[in-house]
From TrEMBL:
Annotated InterPro entries: Thioredoxin-like_sf, Thioredoxin_domain, TPR-like_helical_dom_sf, TPR_rpt, TTL1-4
UniProt keyword ATP-binding present: no
Name of the featured protein: Thioredoxin domain-containing protein
Source species taxonomy: Eukaryota, Viridiplantae, Streptophyta, Embryophyta, Tracheophyta
Record's compositionally biased regions (Basic and acidic residues): 80-90
Coiled coil (UniProt feature): none
Highest rank taxon of the organism: Eukaryota
Organism of provenance: Salix dunnii
Record keyword Hydrolase present: no
Length: 697
């Protein structure tokens, strides 16, 4: 039986040049670091493993273990001069029992390893351990440290349990930590040649000394130790992905390189480039700053950080890092940063003077000059639009901002910017009727800057407007229209151009028969928010009640273009058109709702339709394709009830085809207010409907 001995890590690693040469030659399969020593070959002594438990130490073994601490003659190497090392072992694996214990047996001689250092030598026995979990011979092996001899005790990636069993620590963190600790030695070892069979095949989670199996994936495909563990290789792979625009994959590879070498500024700078590609500018700033901390003279990192600060509108920081970047920066980039700085200064000045048109112009110039990721610029643009009562545009401008969190804004721009951005956001949300979100945003701004007067006023206004809307809605549902009207008016004292409150008050006034005042409220609401469809519909009905048919038809036509299938709007539009014709003294006895598709019977009828106010679509076709084209016309007429659809059969009305210059059949001609504005050849229904929407607006 092999003799088992315990030894401290210091003795293992300090056993002299001869022992290290032996490790490289027989264990790692690498050439000896001693170039003068003669290479010798020996037949390895096999070691077999069975599935029984390790036996407890017998008194004879304990006696032999104690004998290891005795000093040996100093002429040990002289007596053994010329001997070839015969202690190389053949490693094999077998399935273990559920406890993971293995028994080591020896078939021929004892495989004793002898060392001599300062007249003190020790006898070592190699232990080969196989984990019992999930054997899989197809996976590649990865060496975790610079040596692969493991002694009894908690060394490398093995830990010893209380009952003497050995358990492999298969956690990823343990492996990475070991690799990071001894990466330099490992890199030197991988540069030398290695026999293809220098590793034994183990199970998927097996551990032999501190050799562990890497999980499958890009770096577990048998590419070799250098490919999987060399951070430079990982960085180069990341660069390839970056050039291909695969930023997510590049970021993963850079992260792996950093985990192996945390002190390389290049890896941090490249990681920032991948983050920029993903639009994560705040994180990119942190990576560039870390790269500069590691290497303050790293000009590429300074240049990259300058470009990020330029986009964030931090021109002073941008100019500083441009100067530090050396030849990476040209004079044009410095001039652009200086121009942007002037526009941003004028933005601040215009806001202080409340020159909102000027502020709007300067924010547009700032964004077009390069500050496309500056949240403060977008907030100032939204504020200018709010003050100009262009609420829908203000909401769109605010949504274009980068959307940094309050913490990120504070870190990047200082403590005063985040409360301002949140305050403007609260006002924007309130203007479009998102009251709950407006209140939450205003309260967040107040928490960040409780002494800011503008922020506190915004919180007060949002609370008052939200409360007025809630109270007014409850009263309106209870048919208390006068009280509801008063409630909405109280809210408008804090925000006189709030489109939601104006529209709701218009509804109350229309219920009370105050149609003129209702039209005024709707007009005010549409002035700040043109897409407020409820206000437009209410104004159309109120104008109809006042006999203003032309104004009513205009609103109904805009609504029907937005919702062509809305039957209520379509019928209201038809009624308004009939009333307008009656007001003009025209004949309306043949007009019926849904009968906007007609067949031309004479030239006079054709001229009547195409010269009337509004839009008319005329189909010129042959009788033989009458049925197919009629279906196309019917489908279009249902979507656009305000448009007149006419069909002209050229066999019966050849003079009309000639006078209207018809050269291709079938074809559509679109007329508006007596003028021909569009011709569509063929039976393309989609193009026809698209053209009606375009020219009907």
């Amino acid at each position: 039986m092999a003799e088992i001995a315990t030894c401290s890590t210091e003795h293992e690693l300090g056993c002299g040049l001869g022992w290290r040469a032996f490790l490289r030659r027989h264990i790692l399969g690498l050439p000896s670091i001693d170039n003068n020593s003669e290479r010798q070959q020996s037949k390895p002594q096999p070691v077999f493993l069975d599935s029984s438990s390790l036996p407890k130490s017998s008194p004879q073994v304990e006696k032999k273990q104690k004998s290891l601490h005795r000093s040996r003659p100093s002429n040990f190497h002289q007596n053994n001069e010329g001997r070839r090392p015969s202690d190389a072992v053949r490693r094999s694996t077998s399935s273990s029992s559920s406890s993971g214990r293995m028994k080591v047996s020896q078939t021929n001689k004892s495989t004793n390893l002898r060392m001599d250092s300062n007249n003190d030598s020790r006898e070592l026995s190699r232990i080969v351990i196989t984990d019992h979990q999930n054997s899989n011979d197809t996976k590649a092996l990865v060496q975790a440290t610079s040596g692969n001899v493991m002694l009894l005790g908690p060394l490398g990636n093995l830990r010893q349990s209380g009952n003497g069993d050995f358990v492999g620590n298969n956690s990823r963190n343990a492996t990475v930590k070991s690799v990071d600790h001894r990466h330099k030695n490992l890199q030197e070892a991988t540069l030398s040649s290695r026999p293809r069979n220098c590793y034994s095949k183990l199970g998927i989670n097996s551990v032999m000394g501190n050799i562990v199996r890497q999980p499958g994936g890009e770096f577990g495909q048998g590419q070799g130790l250098k490919t999987s563990m060399d951070p430079e290789v990982l960085k180069n792979k990341g660069n390839e992905r970056y050039k291909q625009g695969r930023y997510e994959e590049a970021l993963v590879l850079y992260d792996r390189a950093i985990s192996l070498d945390t002190n390389k500024a290049t890896y941090r700078s490249n990681r920032s480039a991948a983050l920029i590609g993903l639009g994560r500018l705040a994180e990119a700033v942190a990576e560039c700053e870390e790269a500069i901390r590691l290497d303050h003279s790293y000009q590429r990192a300074h240049y990259r950080l300058a470009t990020i600060y330029f986009r964030l509108g931090e021109t002073e920081k941008s100019l500083y890092h441009y100067k530090q970047s050396g030849t990476n920066t040209d004079s044009k980039e410095v001039a652009q940063a200086q121009t942007l700085q002037k526009h941003l200064n004028m933005c601040t000045e215009a806001r202080k003077l409340k020159e909102w048109n000027r502020l709007l112009n300067e924010t547009e110039c700032s964004i077009s000059s390069g500050a496309d990721s500056d949240p403060q610029v977008y907030a100032m643009q939204a504020e200018a639009l709010l003050r100009l009562h262009r609420h829908q545009e203000a909401y769109t401008a605010y949504q274009k901002g980068p959307g940094f969190s309050a913490d990120l804004c504070t870190k990047l721009f200082g403590p005063t910017i985040a409360p301002y951005i949140l305050m403007i956001g609260a006002q924007v949300y309130m203007s479009v009727g998102r009251f709950e979100e407006a209140l939450a945003t205003a309260q967040q701004a107040a928490r960040l800057d409780p002494s800011n007067g503008e922020v506190n006023d915004t919180v007060k206004s949002v609370r008052a407007v939200a409360s007025a809307r809630l109270s007014g809605n409850s009263l309106f549902k209870a048919s208390k229209f006068t009280e509801a009207c008063i409630a909405y008016s109280e809210g408008l004292e804090y925000d006189s151009y709030n489109s939601i409150l104006l529209g709701n008050r218009a509804a109350c006034r229309s219920k009370l028969g105050q149609f003129e005042k209702a039209v005024e409220d709707c007009t005010a609401a549409l002035a700040v928010r043109p897409n407020h469809s409820k206000a437009r519909l209410r104004r159309a009905h109120c104008n109809a009640e006042l006999g203003r048919w032309e104004s009513s038809i205009q609103d109904f036509e805009m609504l029907i273009r937005e919702s062509p299938a809305d039957e209520e709007v379509g019928r209201a539009l038809f009624d308004a058109q009939v009333q307008l014709k009656k007001q003009r003294g025209e004949d309306t006895k043949d007009l019926k709702y849904g009968s906007n598709l007609a067949v031309v019977s004479c030239d006079q009828r054709f001229r009547h339709f195409v010269t009337s106010p509004g839009m008319s679509v005329v189909l010129f076709c042959n009788k033989e394709n009458d049925e197919q084209m009629l279906q196309t016309m019917e489908q279009a007429s249902k979507k656009f009830p305000s448009v007149n659809f006419l069909k002209v059969e050229v066999e019966d009305h050849s003079y009309l085809a000639k006078s209207e210059s018809v050269t291709f059949l079938p074809s559509f001609k679109i007329y508006k207010n007596g003028s021909r504005i569009k011709e569509i050849t063929g039976s393309n229904r989609e193009l026809l409907e698209k053209s009606i929407k375009l020219y009907g607006s």
